[in-house]
TrEMBL record:
Keyword Transferase: yes
Pfam annotation, one family: Methyltransf_19
Listed InterPro entries: SAM-dependent_MTases_sf (IPR029063), SAM_dep_MeTrfase_SAV2177_type (IPR006764)
Native species: Streptomyces mutomycini
CDD domains according to UniProt: AdoMet_MTases
Signal peptide (from-to): none
Keyword terms of this UniProt record: Methyltransferase, Transferase
GO molecular function (one): methyltransferase activity
Enzyme Commission numbers on file: 2.1.1.-
Keyword Ion transport: no
Top-level lineage group: Bacteria
Single GO biological process annotation from the record: methylation
The protein's name: SAM-dependent methyltransferase
Amino acid sequence: MNEYPLPTPHPTSAHPARVYNVWLGGKDHYPVDQEAAELAAGANPTIVPSVRANRAFLGRAVRHLAAAGVRQFLDVGTGIPAAENTHEVAQQAAPDARVVYVDNDPIVLTHARALLVSGPEGQTDYVQADARDVDAILDAASRTLDLNRPVGLMLVAILQYVKDAEDPWDITRRLLDRLAPGSYLVLSHPAADVTAPEVAESMRIYNERAASHASATPRTRTEVERFLEGLEILEPGVVTLTRWRPGPSDTADDSLPMWCAVARKE
């Protein structure tokens, strides 16, 4: 029996990937997801700009890793495909890049297989697994990625769905333990200490409509820094989304309640 229940095809509760799809303006969701997304965004108007800034951060981070020579990426919590997915960004910079996407929603994986198509020189694969099932993720990823060479581990807006009691810090450590030195962690996480009342209310609304295993927990900067213990944190450190190596046309907005960072495994 699967220790981590997978979503049902006809849901009665909201799922993170489909709610995120609503916020990105997509169409791949159910009424229960639409309701959760709209009510949560009503309580916290920074959600939609945060989601878009998070996608922009992912792109900047992947481009940085590709420039640093990383040619393998493990993206846990893929989400329903939208513009500038990990493999698109990576393979624009390095056509031979390999990417493995992981998500626990079969709907997400169906879309991924259809839409996340690798270029001819690279490779893309898909794993249906829960983020908490570390061994299943790494065993499946190793069919496409060489874990003895550096990997970019993408934990972008996913760890909030792992409860404190399930120890998301240990999950992150165990994922990194099997990756080669020179691997990187790309992390973003909703903040509990930026626009705190609005974040708390939007999370409460979302959690009331989500399955128990998909409820969300925002965390403070100090709690987010724990994910990076033992790693070399790249400048500018743990910052809000628009502060991580912005481009010339990017506008800083410290009201967006998400922390992010990129760190290297020695």
